[in-house]
Amino acid sequence: MPSISNKGQAMPESPIRKLVPYAEAAIKKGRKIYQLNIGQPDIKTPEKALAAVKNNDIEVLSYSHSAGFESYRNKLSQYYTNHNIDIAPDELIITTGGSEALLFTMGSICDAGDEVIIPEPFYANYNGFATSSGVTVVPVKSKIEDGFALPPISEFEKLITPKTKAILICNPGNPTGYLYTKEEIDQLAEIVKKHDLFIVADEVYREFAYDGAKHYSIMSVKGIEQNAIMIDSVSKRYSMCGARIGCLASKNKEVMSTAMKFAQARLSPPTFAQIASEAALDTPQDYFDEVISEYTTRRNLLVEGLEKIEGVKVAKPKGAFYCIAELPVKDAEDFAKWLLESFELENETVMIAPAAGFYSTPNTGLNQVRIAYVLKKENLLRALEILKAALKVYKG
Ligand SMILES: Cc1ncc(COP(=O)(O)O)c(C=O)c1O
């Protein structure tokens, strides 16, 4: 039989999706599962976005420009201006999700063997994008005790080698929910300038900042225009994960012209989804106000609920819709499997994501899980009840 590539064999499984077969088996047994494992919000997609697709009389579903519709890029540039982020339409490439923007970025700035420093725990698919691009992820550990704040900048400095090309951050963070302060972003800006590195900021959760905190974009920092690359997406902002639209933004013309070659190779981003995304930009502020208020309530409920369970430690998230919780178990993956295979409370159970897959340092985060508060309040409360009951009887 012809053999599979080394790169293919090295591709990591998604820690978020790898428990799916256990969940499917549980569902077959007739069990109800509260899914706290994935970032699929239950929030409604804005009506305007759906209507733009439904009421469309396109006769030929043609390719678009490789950088995406000009009309969409113009309007998106205006959206950034409204968020105090200065990005011109020609400093944007529309991509098939933030995922493709991350792939184009790694392809544009890294050669095989180059290193990217990432605070861990981090969005697990960064490992997959890095493997696809032959890039080595160099983790710098952030800690639950510090709420997953930016590790001391000296820790980054220790890891910089001649192969280091970039620092990649996620702000607000998946899976930590941490929102970097202006001071932290400024410190990162200083270090990338000093060492002539790129700084890639994944800002797909920009809108999700709580308690009145303001998101501070990498694109707002003066003096690092040639270093900064921003990743964005409509997936979470408008609860449009299935649209598959994101973008890559940079003021660095060489980065953009290189990324454009990757964009041309895949021809164009999806047409209908761009129509929906362009229309979504008309979503009124009260939609976001409602969504933020809903997520704040859910976060408070979840964190308070978790803190009441004996032996559970949690870092209160300031943004996005995830938190990392430390559980009184040895191996959170075994526990997550056990929840699906062997536990039920009135024929119901919960699905959580073991956090070890969000770390690249081996044997780290083994007793931690990521919980997404993407369910409505009643369901979150019930999920907490089930988790509490499960931890009471779990031996491991
Ligand atoms: C931090 C982060 N970046 C990027 C993505 C990719 O999003 P998409 O490809 O749907 O835009 C996700 C999805 O969950 C994410 O959490």
Automatic annotation (TrEMBL):
Its EC number is 2.6.1.-. It is an enzyme of class 2 (transferase). Gene3D superfamilies: Aspartate Aminotransferase, domain 1, Type I PLP-dependent aspartate aminotransferase-like (Major domain). GO terms for molecular function: transaminase activity. Residues 32-386 form the Aminotransferase class I/classII large domain. InterPro entries: Aminotransferase_I/II_large, AspAT/PAT-like, NHTrfase_class1_PyrdxlP-BS, PyrdxlP-dep_Trfase, PyrdxlP-dep_Trfase_major, PyrdxlP-dep_Trfase_small. Keywords: Aminotransferase, Pyridoxal phosphate, Transferase. Its cofactor is pyridoxal 5'-phosphate. Belongs to the class-I pyridoxal-phosphate-dependent aminotransferase family. PANTHER family: AMINOTRANSFERASE (PTHR46383:SF2), ASPARTATE AMINOTRANSFERASE (PTHR46383). NCBIfam families: PRK07568.1 (NF005744). This is Aminotransferase. It comes from Salinimicrobium flavum.
